[in-house]
Amino acid sequence: MSGGILILVEHLKGELSQISYEMLGIGRKLAEASRAPLYAALLGSDVTALANRLGAADKVLLVEDSRLTMPPAGTVASLLKVLIEQQQVSLVLVGGTNITMGVGSMLSVRAHLPFVNFCREVRLENGAVVLTSQLFGGKIFSDVRLPDGRGIVSVYPGAFPADHDRSERASAVENVPVPIETSSVVFKRFIEPEVGDVDITKQNVLVAVGRGIQNEDNLALAEDLAAALGGVICASRPIIDQGWVPLSRQVGKSGMIVKPKLYLALGISGAPEHVEGMQGSQSIIAINTDAQAPIFDVAHYGVCGDLLEIVPVLTEKIKARKG
Amino acid sequence: MQAFVLLKLSPDTVDELTVAADGKSLETEALRFKLGDSDEHALEQALLLKEKYGGTVTAVALEALEVDDVLFTALAKGADRAVKLSGEFTGSQSHAAAGAMGSFLQSGDAALPADALILLRSQAIDDLDGEIGPFLADLLGVPYVGGVTGVAVAGEGLLVTKEFAGGLRGEFTLPLPAVLGIQSAEKPPRYVPIAKVRAAMKSGRMETAEIPLPATPASFTVERMYKPQAAGRAEMLEGAPEIVADRLVAVLAKNNLI
Ligand SMILES: Cc1cc2nc3c(=O)[nH]c(=O)nc-3n(C[C@H](O)[C@H](O)[C@H](O)COP(=O)(O)OP(=O)(O)OC[C@H]3O[C@@H](n4cnc5c(N)ncnc54)[C@H](O)[C@@H]3O)c2cc1C
Ligand SMILES: Nc1ncnc2c1ncn2[C@@H]1O[C@H](COP(=O)(O)O)[C@@H](O)[C@H]1O
């Protein structure tokens, strides 16, 4: 790696996202190992206050402009292209989130750099940058090498600990003048989450249903189990998309992050986007017919079996025990 | 509005995925291909737009095993045209897929219509080198929004809803032509009876276009593909349902959960 390392700081509604600290953590390690400078690109309108919390970077490259309120991927990619040329950057880290989605791909086309998605590990091997990417819903890992250590890496949220939540070091902030192109994609407004009948982030017990539940009628099995345990049901995305369970009960990347005392995953494969939302649960129990399902890697207890057979028996036994 | 839905099949992960002898790719013999969720939703969103605002829907898919079924299903669901892009696309990544779709959309005298809306998956499990949508949008020189969960016509252009996290969404406007990465349609993908798919097959309305596999830019090198070492954290409880249920109750009790 000959040039610097740059992370695209992610923020939403005036707050730095957790992924920003995760990327700073990785960036710091790579910077120390390769003696390259670590830059944090902070782009947005009204973001100066956030710049002071990025001391882990050697320099914060600040581009503040009222036109950068929720900028589209194309605008961000164009700005980053200028920054990486100006600062002679080799490696760019972006967040693998819905907020940043698209930026890495577009930057890759515009800056003629390779782009690697879904990375859960970034390391230096004899000076070369090697990445581990998770594919096919977490069922296959792929190690890839970047030619000359140059490229753009999308970092999977939650794969790296954000060990130092903030740096004690004062940020070195540089206002960078960069021309901003007006985009034909215009941000209008936020739509706040619908308030559901229950707040799944505040429950002690969640019974989560996935595609293994097979049809809407079978939901009653999960409802009964949840009732017996004093909890509520929540679901993976496909179940929400079917309209069987309300959006406010979606767990995962685009849904809620939950940390209940008990998370019982029924017929959920454990795709990375789902795991992102539930891996912090205290006790995780998974029932799945596929012994290879990635959910068993995050669960504390697992049953390889048919939920349609096991759940009714389990519910009865819990009821009997509770009396 | 002329909607083009671009479909790329991905390996079905319900089947066991096997790493090939080269240690760098999947064993293709054993793979079955299917449409990903967000591909299904892209098609559904296009059909919903047609129902609401009129216009046409053209379903375009890169050749792969099982692709004919996918295209006939699209016709049965209400697409006006179904086009198979024939070429050696199996295993090709997003850059190449975008290149192939781009050459179809701009082939010959048929430049991209001014009222074209291109809908495709937002992100898929095999997008190792990125999402197809942004590549294609840059190739065509048109705007792109991904993570889309709602589309409406507004004036000359569109009003789209994009999802962020925790149920938060945002609204954006953009002009046509445009590329949208669909995360989910406003309604669940419709079901179509097999008889209708058979009828579509008989109608023989599928078109084929030869597209050479585009050259892809210098990229990364895949060194190794492998199954993740199961962290093996789960303690597996085995036995018939009765026995497993007893064990689960014991676990719940031990952890003060009942
Ligand atoms: C940008 C983006 C954001 C996303 N956000 C989210 C999100 O917020 N939340 C989310 O959940 N997903 C999200 N996804 C989708 C995610 O990638 C997966 O597709 C989804 O989590 C899969 O849901 P599932 O496990 O229910 O279904 P599948 O992956 O289809 O798994 C079903 C499982 O059920 C098992 N099964 C089948 N029958 C039975 C039976 N009778 N008994 C027991 N087990 C059975 C199968 O073995 C399988 O493992 C997102 C994807 C993208 C690209
Ligand atoms: N994510 C981070 N946030 C803030 N400071 C960090 C971060 N990572 C490392 N540092 C600091 O950077 C310096 C080198 O860290 P290390 O690479 O862990 O030896 C130390 O002063 C760390 O405290």
User: If you consult CATH, what is the topology of chain B?
Assistant: Rossmann fold
Q: What value does the Rg of chain A take, in angstroms?
A: 22 Å
CATH homologous superfamily annotation of chain B: HUPs
The share of residues in extended strands of chain A comes to 25-35%
User: Which structural class do you get from the secondary structure elements of chain B?
Assistant: alpha/beta
Q: Would you identify the CATH architecture of chain B? A: 3-Layer(aba) Sandwich
Q: What sequence of helices (H) and strands (E) makes up the elements of chain B?
A: EEEHEHEHEHEEEEHEEEH
Largest sheet of chain B: 9 strands, mixed
**Which percent bin holds the helix content of chain B?**
25-40%
Which series of helices and strands of chain A comes N to C? Answer: EEEHEHEHEHEEEEEEEHEHEHEHEH
Low-confidence segments of chain B, given as residue ranges, are none
Count of spatially separate domains of chain B:
1
Kindly list the characteristics that best describe this protein:
heterodimer, A: 323 residues, alpha/beta, 9-stranded mixed beta sheet, 5-stranded parallel beta sheet, elongated, B: 258 residues, Rossmann fold, two-stranded antiparallel ribbon, 28% strand, binds flavin-adenine dinucleotide, binds adenosine monophosphate
Structure commentary:
The complex is a heterodimer of chains A (323) and B (258). The longest helix of chain A has 17 residues, at 18-34. Chain A has 323 residues and is of the alpha/beta class. Chain A has helices at residues 18-34, 48-51, 73-86, 103-111, 219-229, 237-241, 272-278, 295-298, 307-322, and strands at 4-8, 11-12, 15-16, 38-44, 59-64, 89-95, 115-125, 128-135, 140-145, 151-155, 173-175, 186-191, 205-209, 232-235, 262-266, 283-288, 301-304. In chain A, strands 9-8-7-10-6-1-4-5-11 form a nine-stranded mixed beta sheet. Chain A has a five-stranded parallel beta sheet with strand order 14-13-15-16-17. Helix content of chain A is 27%, strand content 28%. In chain A, helix 3 (73-86) crosses helix 4 and helix 5 runs parallel beside helix 9 (307-322). With 258 residues, chain B is of the alpha/beta class. Chain B has a single domain (2-210), classed as 3-Layer(aba) Sandwich (Rossmann fold), CATH 3.40.50. Helix content of chain B is 28%, strand content 28%. Chain B contains six helices and 13 strands. Chain B has helices spanning 37-53, 67-77, 94-105, 132-140, 194-203, 241-254, and strands spanning 2-7, 10-11, 33-34, 56-62, 81-86, 116-121, 144-154, 157-163, 169-174, 178-182, 206-210, 221-226, 235-236. In chain B, the strands form two sheets. In chain B, strands 9-8-7-10-6-1-4-5-11 form a nine-stranded mixed beta sheet, with helices on both faces. In chain B, helix 2 (67-77) crosses helix 5 (194-203) and helix 3 (94-105) packs across helix 4 (132-140). Chains A and B meet through helix 4, strand 7, strand 8, strand 9 and strand 12 of A and strand 2, helix 4, strand 7, strand 8 and strand 9 of B. Strand 17 (301-304) of chain A pairs parallel with strand 13 of chain B. The structure holds flavin-adenine dinucleotide and adenosine monophosphate. Adenosine monophosphate binds next to helix 1 of chain A.
